[in-house]
Model the fold of this input.
Amino acid sequence: MKKMRKMLAVALSAAMVAGLAGSVVSADGGGDIYVMFSTNVMSLDTNLATDGDSFEIIADCIDGLTQMDAEGAAVPAIAESWDVSDDGCKYTFHLRDDAFWSNGEPVTAADFEFAWKLAMTANVEYNYMFESSVGAVKNADAILYEGADPDTLGVTAVDDKTLEVELEVPVSFFPSLMYFPTFYPINQAFYESLGDGEYGTSPSTFLCNGAFLLDDYLPGAASMTVVKNPDYYDADKVSLNSITYQVVGSSDQALTGFKSGNLDLAVVSGDQVAAVQDDASLADSLNIVGAGYLWYVTFSQTQNPSSEGDLANANLRLAFSNAIDRESLVDNYVMDGSLATFTAVPPQFAASATTGEDFSADQQKFAEYVSFDVEKAQGYYEKAKEELGKDSFQFTMIYGNNEGDEVAKVAQAIKEQVEAALPGVTIDLQAMTKAERLDKMQNDDYCVALTRWGPDYADPMTYLGMWVTDTANNYGFWSNPEYDQLIKDCTSGAYVSDYEARWAALYDAEELVLKEAVIAPLYTKANANLITSGLEGVEFHPVALNRVYKNATFSK
Done:
């Protein structure tokens, strides 16, 4: 039955794409569920994956030293326990004896040491998490920025079951970093037995040690499947037999797939959310949760193949930002519970350890720099025109055409709002795949981009660390010595051991980002999930891993 239902799901997807959707018979799933992905998964290599969908598959199949519990706290996984030195700068992880790779080999401390040092040898997006601004693993900065030997990274396999990690400074959330895929292990012998670039491109080139095994996958394919791992150390807690992910290109197709029974978990937006709320047979299936992602506009501040460099002018960027009606974007185009956002750190994911208050609860904190105020926008615009000696500007804004059908609507709305508020500005829209968009941003071959960032860990630094000079995710290529010093003080300097002073300094850093309109924040994404009756226990998180299925059950 599982195989037949999978064939029907693929057939439905193809029919919907061609505009020929017809009736499809729903089949009972038992322990087999069908889940929507919004984008194609291009790589399962933990050093190459850059998006939440890829991380979800990887985390299905591989455990790190820790896992997330239902509340997002770090709990033991491959590490059954750990010790922390009195100064907070040394972690000793004790690995469990009953964790095995899918080729039968035990998971060892050497697998972690190899994977971490491998991340140091390549120009990959997420090795920033080892840096002083995040994980502060000893010598990471020297390796990444000064050419030091990767073997000097502060991670050592003391023996097969003991991993020692040295930090430059204490990192209060370090155990939580360990459930992020960048810190997952890789079996060295298996990795080195493959050709260059082959790891993580098929079930036969990917080793698993987690709750599920990779059963069906090709890079960029429209569907992929994981099945329960019978040899998993915690297999008794895993109820699902399989998860089949289906790439669905639009909210309308997602709703059709859910109603026909071919998707057990789907995400809808826009008009489909209202349709679900008005349909008594579907309303009980709707579950809106915060997804954590901040959608924002970023500006290249250089003169490059796609830009004349005008956006190096802060007043022009401020004019652009203050011309955007964020409330209109979420109310009329996104329509899924997403929150209009006026801060560089989005709300509802990072809370003070002393007060419990959301770091970004006050969305008017920086209203002087971020608002919807056409008069203010035009004031900035007049200053920019005078400073640049120009009366008109033409920008191309790039956006992903496979990141949800609301993205094109948001891009069009921004174009219309900015052009209406700032006479003489023309915005050309250019749609492309997410992979193409990221490539252009990373290689500074763009002018304006509509993009997003999800929190990798529950601290404001997961956003604020992006705008340090020369970091890989500083897509605007902005540089500010005062900002760099503030971040340094919060990560390795004066404020490391003074929580309240650090919190205040992070606000100071955020103010600089918004004062210079390094980005124009737009909205914090929510997911309007449709969950089929009988599917319970899927854990939703705004940080790191958005969906976890280890404790999920399904019955029809």
